Amino acid sequence: MKKLTALFLLFGLGIAPLLAQKNNRDKIESLKVGFISTQLNLSSEEAERFWPVYNKFNDEQVKLKRNAKLSILDEIEDMNALGASDAEKYLQEMIQFKYNEAELIKRYSLEFKRVLPVQKVVMLFKAENNFKKELLKQLKERNKK
């Protein structure tokens, strides 16, 4: 029950104002850290070992996504005007991005298992997914107003 209350406070008070402002990635990132910490219920020893690994993982994930966006999405201006060879090129780039993303997760899953029990590693990926869902939910609610 305490976790649920903490989550409602975190999202109810924390995210809505952030979504109204631009360039608040650091604030959203700190909310994400709090959310993950709450979900994983990390001991101080676990947190000390986990966060440096997670931060490296997150940095690599962000870099991978930025590179993919720059090379794929930014080049496509009009999907209807895209020729078959160009479409094939972009498709292969998207497949390569997904492959690289899966490899990154696979590699860091091994790292996470060195510092956390496997159950908490699974909970980590679930917590990240839940955070994204809640963030999108807050954004949709904000856009309705």
Number of helices: 5
Number of strands: 0
Poorly predicted ranges = 1-20
N- and C-termini, Cα separation: 30 Å
User: What summary fits the major beta sheet?
Assistant: none
* Content of β-strand: under 5%
H-E order: HHHHH
Average the pLDDT over all residues and give the rounded result: 82
Helix content: over 70%
Kindly name the structural category. Answer: mainly alpha
Write the SSE topology:
Layout: H1 2-19, H2 25-40, H3 44-73, H4 84-115, H5 118-144
Features:
5 helices; 145 residues; single chain; mainly alpha
What does this structure look like?
By secondary structure, this protein is mostly helical. It has 2 domains: 1-42 and 122-145; 43-115. Helices cover 85% and strands 0% of the residues. It is built from 5 helices and no strands. It has helices at residues 2-19, 25-40, 44-73, 84-115, 118-144. The chain is globular and about 55 Å long.
Task: Offer a concise description of the structure.
The protein has 145 residues and is an all-alpha fold. The chain has helices at 2-19, 25-40, 44-73, 84-115, 118-144. It has 2 domains: 1-42 and 122-145; 43-115.
